[in-house]
Each structure stands twice: as structure tokens, then as C-alpha cells.
Batch of 2 targets.
Target 1
Amino acid sequence: MSSLLRDRSEDGGRSPLSSTLARELKGEKMIPVYGFSRVKDPVVGETRDLRAPWALEETGLPYRVHGLDYVEGDTKTGDNRRISPFSQVPVIDDDGFVIAESGAIVLYIAEKAGVLIPADLQGRSRVTQWCFTALNALEPTLLQIQIIEGGGEKATGVQRRPELAERREKNLRCWSSSCRVALTLQVKILRSLTS
């Protein structure tokens, strides 16, 4: 999946993978992380699923990666859809508490471990602000630049719009209105559907 997970014997057994195996052998409860085992070549090392193991490594929480083969369609199986309504990764399952979306996972891991995030409300809110900024202001812009520079078949907005509109509809069908805080973040999107 990534260099984080490679077992390198020259490091004296200090690689994350050998550390993970040692902790598992000691009987520590591992947090399952569902991520990619294989993706298409242009995105190797750039996928969002790398964020969860990175945060787990930074916090020292024990985890085990369950690889899904994107190329073979593992993310679209019924098993994956049960834990990830949008058929995406990463997803973690912390003793029955299943959470998807890399930003939410990273914040959850930080809160659980008590590191990477301040203990006070204002400090946590500032970290949350920068997480939203990274995911909603910086990443989409950079992603569009990558798509344009990559020159893929559907590089222009006009060409990509039908696919994106279909994805929006599918995602909104999965939307749970029970989360009122998140719902307030979607007002613009919901208004666009009625106009």
C-alpha cells in the first residue's frame, strides 16, 4: 500500500509493519483500516487512504490494514458498501465504531490518542478549521489542476459534468439527514438541486 507498510529487514525490525505484527502477536487490539492494496499507476502514493495509516503511525495506535484492490473493483462490493456508503476508502472500524472519510478519520484518531490535537475547545476548533480548509479549499483546486495537466479523457469541466452530477446524486441518496451539523454544511448543494 505505501512505504509506511513495507517490512524492511535492514531497519532492525523497526519498520511500521514489523512493529504492527509484534503488537498483534502481543494480543493488542488492532484498529482495522480499509485501504487500497492496488490502484491505477497514475495515483500510486497519492490516494486519500494513506491518511489513516499515517495518522495512526503518528499517534502510535495499533492498526492492521485490509487492502482492497481498486482495479478489480473491491471497493464496489456489497461488503465494502456496508461499511462505506460511498464505496470509498479509507474506512476504520474501531471496536464496532465504523467511520469513513479521511478527514473525519484523522480527527477521530487524534481525539482517541489525545495527540495531534489540542485538548481545549478553541484549539480543537482551530485544527478542525484547517482540516476543512485542506479538504475543501486546497485539495479540490489541486485535484482539478492534476486532472487538467494529466489530460485524461474527461479533463474538461464540460466533459466531466455528467459523471460528477451522477456521483452527486448517488452520494445525496446515501445522505443521512440525522446529522444536523453536517447538513448545515450542505445547504449550498441542496439549494442547487432545487434550482
Note: Strands lie at 31-38, 63-69, 91-94, 97-100.
Target 2
Amino acid sequence: MAEFLDDLAADPPGPAAGSAAAAAVAIAAALTELSARRSGDDLTATRAAASRARALPLAEADARAYADVLKSRGEAQREALERACDVLRQITAAADEVRVLAAPLVDTAKGALRGEAFAAVELAEAGRRVADRLILVNSDSAAIDSGS
């Protein structure tokens, strides 16, 4: 975790907001898995583990995609921005999936595990909001660069 945060704080290219959003979603999935498993909901725990396995690599995928944006120009940059948006869309989908898994646990998990479920919902929603905003930013950048 410390290495990821050091990379996040470093100058580009490297992970940035999209990677942070993916990490938040992966953390949300891990908290969902914990809450579900310790509450005896093995099906939700298994689904949350699968969501975590899909979300975590998106942090690195986002960093690579945006590195491509930074090193390209013109039409190649617009195409790279679209690929970066594709990764961000995958992050939003993962966030939605985790939120749907975590939300019922806020009420049904055992005792203090409801707090983990609540945190999972909040982190998943935050990851989605960040990814959505970055899609807008990237779309605006592509429009500005193309003269639209």
C-alpha cells in the first residue's frame, strides 16, 4: 500500500485519480467479502472476491492507459483518451457491482460488520463518482483537442 501511495504522489506517468478510484473499489470489494464471509453469507463473499479480482488490476490498467494519453498527440491522443475512458467505464461497472453486493449487508451483516459494509458502499460509490468525472474530463479534453 505504501508503494502505491508513493507512486500516486509521484510525477506522471504513473497512477493517478483513475487508479485511486479502482483501488477504492477493490478495497470496497474486500470489505464486502469480509463482512459477508464473517456473517455467513458465502455466496456474497464469493461474488465480492471475484469483484475484487476484477477491480484491482484496473488500477494498473488505468495508469498504463493514461500514460499512453500523455505520450501521444493529435488523433492518437484522442484514441488514447477513448481507451482510458474504456478503463474508467470498467471501474464504474465494478463499483456498481460491489455496491449492489455491499448494500444489503449494511442491514443484514452481524454486529460491527455492518460498519465494514457501510464503508464498502461508500468507497464503491466514491470510486464510481471519481471514474464518472474522469470520463467527463477526458471527453472534454478530446473535444477541445479536436476543435469541437
Note: Helices lie at 2-9, 17-38, 42-70, 74-102, 105-108, 113-146.
